[in-house]
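Most newcomers find our protein records easier to grasp once they have seen one. To make this concrete, we reproduce a full record directly below:

===
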Amino acid sequence: MQEYQREHAEAAIDVTTYVSNPINAYLLTKRLTTDWKQVENLMAHDVGGEFLRNISNYRSILKFPSEEDLNGAAVALMRLQDTYNLDTSSLARGELNGVQYSTEMSSDDCFELGRQSYVNHDYYHTVLWMNEAMTRMSYEPRNRSLPFSKADILEYLAFSTYKQGDVESALSMTNELLQLLPTHERANGNKVYYEKELKELSAKKKVKGDDGSDETPKSDLPIAKAEPSVYDYTERKAYELLCQGKLKPTPEQLRPLRCRYIDNNVPFLKIGPMKMEEASKDPYIVIYHDAMFNSEIEIIKKMARPRFRRATVQNAITGELETANYRISKSAWLRTEEHPIIANIVQRTEDMTGLDMLSAEELQVVNYGIGGHYEPHFDFARREEVRAFQGLNTGNRIATVLFYMSDVEQGGATVFTAINTALKPKKGTAAFWYNLHRSGDGDYRTRHAACPVLTGSKWVSNKWIHEARQEFRRPCDLEPDHGEYAI
């Protein structure tokens, strides 16, 4: 009870700040799922009966998180750990990218992260977090009640280590487990299996190589963790380094970039020109400052919240919309005619880009919460995606406008992996780029991603502009305007 009261008091100071910390978000979800089962057991006697019934009613009304939510929070933490190269022990101490927060994980919290990773067949993170649970358990009070034992940790560690290819260590851990519990049926079976595996491996190693060595050489090539269908190892590395801020454009790329006021010969902008900052010359990517105001942002957020649904992607083969693990966010669509503020933003988008908005898609509002991200992708449809935008009859997405509606404490950058460019979220700014060459072919250099949100909550809105009605606003060139990057 004291632990719950302490956490409640800390969170009540600033709820938004509290839950924007991914460690707090994970621990809160854990307290309301696996930990709550233990609380219910403690309160199941007559003294706690009335209170338990009261809380149970709240659970149904307030929609407490489920086991699926807990798994999602755990996966989000693993994603942050990988993308930002976070040390396991530092993360358990409450450090996020070198910044110390008050929250620290217990051995129980670490064990649950390892267990969730195991459920997802993620044996790499299972080993990391089970080892951390073992370390923390060794210096926590002996009389502290835990829902697991050292033997439980060893069993998870042994099998996960085996799945990673280290049979010798798996056997060693299994032997240690059997010293604690000699009659452990599963461990005894695994011990026999691991010993058999080691004998077979030993026999294979006796085959001499061409160089006369006794063992076959092991490959030192890195193993890509990402799905090959999404992006390859080289791009994955570039994506992570860009998110970490360790990969930047060359001086040659930065030298010609300028900031200036623009009016696009629009009468309204003649009076109040837009502030434009160039992020890339080729492909053309710019940032408009003061493109959306705080009052507008609050109205858009208020309209979007009740409509939020899990964001979807378009299946390249069927053209159907579906959810995917490489895009984790919530989104809602707002029509232009719904509110004068949205109409103003759409008109402002036309003024600053010089493109016609009648063929543009409605304003999509997106929120990225704990670990929210969108892996490298194209906004335009490639030629093989014949069903893309089929019902719109407005052609391909010629350009993208991305409004940033919040600052993000850590993470959340928009990164272009082909040109080593990262755009950091800044409330009120808008990024703009062309997805297509003037010929209508897709520009592969515009492949981009939304880095995971490390701390905070990221709000953005998109305006995707299509080809129809842009014939005289962005006409084709007489000469080809692209080479190797054409489809």
